[in-house]
Predict the structure.
Amino acid sequence: MVERVQATAACLELIDQLREKHGPLMFHQSGGCCDGSSPMCFAQGDLFLGDQDKKLGEIGGCPFYIHEDQYEYWKHTQLIIDVVDGRGGIQTRFCLGDLFIQVACTESCFCSYYSVLTG
């Protein structure tokens, strides 16, 4: 079975840095616009989950939740979470100068991120 969410090595490294500094983490991708449709990182417990939030999987040992509206849109893809340099609005309150981004790959296509994930 295809894992619905995976992370690149750079993303996992950033997760480790954040977890070391802030403790257990969680990710959420809401049905909002702009930053809200990007993966957001929180300290566990800083975001209250609702009945419409689904656990998609885990990255770096951290649960990754997605709003059911986003799930319906992305359910036929595999989400790969990566990081890029820069700052965003609400993506992470930890402000290390990196943004979490999402790359979507369909189950039936070759994804260029495959080589990033497998080395």
User: Anything to note?
Assistant: Residues 18 and 94 are 7 Å apart (CA to CA). The longest strand covers residues 77-85. The radius of gyration is 13 Å. The chain is about 25% helix and 35% strand.
